[in-house]
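Changelog-linked ticket: zinc ion example.
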Amino acid sequence: MSEIKPCPLCGTKPYIRKYNAEEEDIVSCTVGGCPLSAGYITLSEWQKRPIEDALRAENEVLREACRVAEQTLRNFANGDLKGDAKVIAHNAAYRLFNLLQD
Ligand SMILES: [Zn+2]
């Protein structure tokens, strides 16, 4: 199984109560006062984070896009681009500059 996820509300490493082979483990937050410290959440339910998983996947795509953009701009700055590639990189740099100003 993958690593147990932290509490979605406070980020703390949770406590796992293990029972036996017939019953699923129960997870709870270890921080007193956290709403998930007093509950009955099975390990499989605790690990479900569809929105978080989708955001992580989207974040990875955006990070890769930033890496590609950075490399393209470096190539532009170094004078390694010619023709249409040079124009495209120039326009991308201009758009990025404006986005970063907001
Ligand atoms: Zn918590």
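Closing comment: Example verified and attached. The first helix runs from residue 43 to 47. The two ends are 42 Å apart (CA to CA).
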